[in-house]
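Here is one chain, start to finish.
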Amino acid sequence: QVQLVESGGGLVQTGGSLRLSCAASGRTFNGYAMGWFRQAPGKEREFVAAINWSGSSTNYADSVKGRFTISRDNAKNTLYLQMNSLKPEDTAVYYCAARGRTLYTGRYYDGDRDYDYWGQGTQVIVSS
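Its structure:
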């Protein structure tokens, strides 16, 4: 079992930046593939970015590619999402997720059904 807590959300103007963090506790963070998803009002949850257990492989949704960067610090049990050049359409609740059913696979995963543990979310609002 692992617990995930996101932080770093807030209100920012178009073109601004935010860095989200996801702190993991419980079982060891190492070995887990991790991901970020988001859900805007009235919309389904969508994939944002994913990273394998070591941080050597990453994947991004087309809508955020070149603007967002996912990273992790296994020594600190923390996942990050650096968001630059933010747009109003990035407004959403952002969730981090961990895949616990398989460890150290070297892969990243971009489907929400691929993940076993979820945080409570952090709100990001981008004003125009």
